[in-house]
Design brief:
Elements (H helix, E strand, L loop, with lengths): L8 E9 L5 E8 L2 E6 L6 E5 L3 E9 L4 E9 L4 E6 L2 H9 L7 E3 L3 H10 L3
Parallel strand pairs: 5-8
Antiparallel strand pairs: 1-2, 1-7, 2-3, 3-4, 5-6, 6-7
Protein name: ManO family protein
Pfam families: DUF956
């Protein structure tokens, strides 16, 4: 059994991890870390301490009405992408521990195209 890093849990919710193959499990947000535990295999888990979180990137569509997925970029180990049942609740819970200046929107489809064409000079 895996030992949790958190001493106090703020939110536990069903989620999907997009690290390689999609894995279903639960996200646990607490006072020490962001944690994801797989439902089927207890050996597959992700624990990200709040000190290691660099940015939280949210994919926002329809002017904030729908957030299909969000990513956590760490200082050392790269980016982890997740989706959950209620992403706004998750992002509000994360905002308690991560500086709001480090929570950003991802680029939209047309922004990516615009950036690709303006840099081709």
């Amino acid at each position: 059994m895996v030992q949790s890093l958190n001493t106090k849990v703020d939110l536990t919710i069903d989620a999907t991890s997009f690290l390689g193959i999609n894995e279903y499990g639960k996200i646990m947000i607490g006072d020490k870390a962001f944690e994801f535990y797989n439902d089927r295999d207890k050996r597959k888990f992700i624990q990200i301490p709040w000190e290691d979180v660099d940015y939280v990137i949210a994919s926002v569509m329809f002017k904030g009405r729908w957030i299909p997925r969000y990513a956590i970029r760490t200082k050392k180990n790269g980016t982890y992408t997740f989706s959950s049942k209620e992403p706004k609740k998750v992002l509000r819970a994360i905002r308690e521990y991560v500086d709001p200046d480090h929570m950003v929107h991802s680029l939209g489809f047309f922004d990516v195209l615009k950036r690709a064409f303006t840099r081709r000079k």
